[in-house]
Fold DUF421 domain-containing protein.
Amino acid sequence: MGDWIYRNILAIDWHRSFNPHVALLDIVLRGTIIYLVLFAMLRVTRRHSGEMGTSDVLLIVLIADAVQNGMASDYHSVTEGLTLALTIFFWSWLLEWLPVRFPRLRPVLVPAPGLLVRDGRIDPRALRRDLMTEEDLMAQLRLQGVHDVAAVRRACVEANGQLSVQRRA
């Protein structure tokens, strides 16, 4: 019985667990390409990330499922999984660091603030561009204690997705 438990439950194939079956550079290359393409796709749509709605969460889950085979190929070892995770973390960190270190890259990597309200007037084109309704905007203004758009000098969707409001004097 003890021998059976060891062979079938406790025996660990360390070589199989840590020996990569796919070239690690292949994993890094796949992770890099897919990460950068997805970053560009999400950047082009000008979606801000401050607050995620149901459709945003669903989009992320479905994208993750759709690209996981392309990123992972057919890996089985811990080493391959960690290589892919480190690649994703690296690109995430780099794309946050680059606009801080090199301000000229900021317009390419970080969405510009979207001016939604100017001098008490809502800009309908800006709302459409940022995929917001007037009701969404008013809800965000109310959360900041503003109940009448006429009291707003400027309201912008910042790069982090949060709404910043300057009130009229």
In short: The longest strand covers residues 152-157. DSSP finds eight helices and four strands in the chain. Residues 78-101 form the longest helix (24 residues).
